[in-house]
Design brief:
Elements lengths: L2 H21 L1 H12 L4 H20 L18 H13 L14 H10 L2 H13 L2 H30 L2 H30 L1
Helix pairs in contact: 1-6, 1-7, 1-8, 2-7, 3-5, 3-6, 3-7, 4-8, 6-8
Length: about 200
């Protein structure tokens, strides 16, 4: 297996799922709270799928940044998730935001999830920008598979997850570290994916 193929595999199967999971614990808790509250299962599924597709589309639009920025500079996009992760580590509060169960329609659910997914976009977007065509396909597939697992987890464990203070704290503290890790990966790998 070529080095590039191994990098695509590692990125798609390891880095993207961990980055997605770490930056979406808050969305998991929001969805679980909605599932334990007044939102129907159908609205949860449609809202989640629409939000996931929107976030993937926005993050993948970073591939067009190479029209504005020379390819040899794209690797420096790694400083974006590193900066956000560092900021969150230094200046964010100790507790995760609490979700509400008042909003129950799929458009409201998807809107809430998209607005709350800035960290995911800033973690995954630079990976799309600095990667080649095969790696981008791997990123999209890794994102889609992880989102499907996430939805299964939400539907299967909404009542337990909604009440899990430990999971909430873990995800809230893990997300900044994953953003820093993604940024370091982008900085170290940029020359190999763009060529």
């Amino acid at each position: 297996m070529a080095i590039v193929d191994l990098q695509i595999l590692v990125t798609a199967l390891v880095l993207v799922p961990f980055a997605y999971a770490a930056t979406n614990i808050d969305n998991l808790l929001i969805m679980a709270s909605l599932g334990a509250g007044r939102a129907s299962r159908g609205h949860l599924v449609v809202g989640f799928v629409v939000a996931s597709c929107t976030v993937l589309l926005i993050a993948s639009m970073a591939v067009f940044i190479d029209r504005l920025v020379p390819p040899e500079v794209l690797g420096y996009l790694g400083f974006v998730p590193i900066s956000i992760g560092t900021y969150l580590l230094l200046f964010s509060g100790a507790e995760a935001p609490q979700a509400t169960s008042r909003t129950a329609t799929w458009p409201a659910i998807s809107g809430l999830l998209v607005v709350n997914s800035g960290d995911t976009i800033f973690a995954i977007g630079p990976l799309f920008a600095e990667s080649g065509g095969d790696a981008r396909l791997g990123l999209a597939l890794g994102f889609a598979l992880t989102a499907a697992v996430w939805l299964f987890l939400i539907l299967g464990a909404s009542k337990r997850v909604a009440g899990s203070v430990l999971l909430s704290r873990l995800g809230y503290r893990l997300a900044p570290w994953m953003m820093v890790l993604v940024g370091l990966y982008i900085l170290s790998d940029s020359a190999t994916d763009v060529v």
